[in-house]
Amino acid sequence: MSDVILTLEHISKSFDGKQILEDFNLEIGRNEFVTLLGPSGCGKSTILRIIGGFVRPDAGRVLFEGRDISMLPPEKRNVNTVFQKYSLFPHMSVADNIAFGLKLKKKSTSYINDKIAYALKLVNLEGYDDRDPLSLSGGQQQRVAIARAIVNEPQVLLLDEPLGALDLKLRHEMQRELIKIKKEVGITFLYVTHDQEEALMMSDRIIVMNKGIIQQAGDSKSIYDEPQNAFVADFIGESNIIDGIMVRDLLVNIQGVDFPCVDTGFGENNPVDVVIRPEDLEIMPEGRGYLTGRVISVIFKGAYYEIKVLVDDYEWMIQSVDPAPVGDLVGLTIDPDNIQIMHKPVRDDEEVARDE
Fold it and tell me: What fold, for 4-225?
């Protein structure tokens, strides 16, 4: 990667004898918005704390612009962290909260006032200087926490599930605000979340993790359209994941029926995982399509209907703008381009993990 600002080399970390990270490696580019995405306990927050200096790795190095900062305390690193718990000082005004780090650095009063004004404008809180933080909404408190981090001019901003405590509408609003702030201040964002929609919307690059291991890295479209294993396919959006047999190049057998596909290189008559997104399946009249099944449930989701069709012992999920009556026999068809073929998992971290 060109213009790398942050490098993690062979990082390992365990807590109470449990290995959280082992030989973890990652490069982050300057001005990149990178999201660490994965279920609880996968190690993503531990990575953030290691970068921030709050946790020391058992092995490996953290390099900032090529310089080893692994042993530096948090205040000596040119990074700032915004946590889910905002940790604002309730006895200080909004302005004093924002200025706290600058005062510790003994910056001049005029410099501090200019920075406060700039930060409040950036987060759309102009005129809130003298407000009590406890009088603010959750979204406003989060903006103050972000402003407090930004005024210190970090080259990397670490955000540990910062929107997790907000309701859905506020969370969407803050997602848009963060994208705007990132573009305006031109710094590197490293963002931690388990919310797939959030990651897909905001990120330049997504690092999908499970059990301390990177499962896949790429932009939103490649992660969604071309998952590399069953875990990624299941964790990023809804998926139908079913056993198949790769008959030969460009042909896969699913539930005893041969489907044309676009994949090659999986050998002949080999077991594979087949991934089909619910929006890519089309319901046809009975007798048409590749498969025939019975509609067992229809749920209205606002923009679409979530329809489940039972074929033999597998429940196919379909997302369609048109409902289908429960109990009807229907056909299912799929365009070959929308069938994703994957090798069977070779490690347990690659398995579907629905309960994590």
Answer: Rossmann fold (3.40.50)
